[in-house]
Write a structure and sequence with these properties.
The chain contains 2 helices and 12 strands; from the N terminus they run αβββββββββαβββ. A hairpin with a 4-residue loop joins strand 8 and strand 9. It has 167 residues and is an alpha+beta fold. Strands 1, 2, 3, 4, 5, 6, 7, 8, 9, 10, 11 and 12 form a 12-stranded mixed beta sheet that branches.
Length: 167
């Protein structure tokens, strides 16, 4: 006979922490290569999905497109994860984003020049959870990286942090 247990908020947070660690383990190993090589000439992607679990879509130009590992992320794309879903993305400067279940995050602005290593990032987070490990932009000019939520604006001063918002 199978028993069903109630999963506490602590258990859910612990599972989310383990999932983040797994997603970032895969992504972090590739972040250095992403920051060294940048995107191929003529490719206007701003990032690449490295891991995708469950239902993950990108809203682009009024359309919802399911994504898989290796799919491009463009400026102005909104990433939406379903229940029990997650995704990790590596941006061109080596920044790693890991989104948890039921999240909605928009890459509102992203500019990165691999030659000068200058640029800016603006991420708008409507709901859910996001873990960010900063890349070259935040390391060289942290004031050029911002995350907005429905109730706050976060200026990046660290290199690894988690943001959660509830709607």
């Amino acid at each position: 006979m199978m028993h069903i247990r109630h999963v506490s908020a602590v258990s859910v947070r612990l599972l989310w922490g383990v999932l983040c660690a797994l997603l970032l383990g895969v992504g972090a190993a590739m972040a250095q290569a992403a920051s060294d090589t940048g995107a191929p000439q003529g490719d206007n992607r701003q990032g690449t999905f490295k891991t995708v679990q469950g239902e993950v879509v990108v809203e682009r130009g009024g359309k919802r497109v399911p994504v898989s590992s290796g799919a491009p992320l463009m400026a102005l794309d909104r990433i939406v994860t379903g229940p029990r879903s997650a995704a990790s993305v590596i941006l061109r400067d080596g920044t790693v984003l890991a989104l948890g279940p039921d999240s909605s995050v928009n890459l509102a602005e992203f500019r990165f020049d691999p030659t000068t290593q200058e640029g800016n990032i603006l991420i708008s987070m409507a709901k859910g959870s996001l873990r960010m490990v900063s890349g070259l932009i935040a390391k060289l000019k942290p004031e050029q990286v911002k995350i907005t939520t429905p109730t706050s604006v976060i200026g990046v001063r660290g290199t690894d942090f988690i943001v959660e918002t509830h709607s």
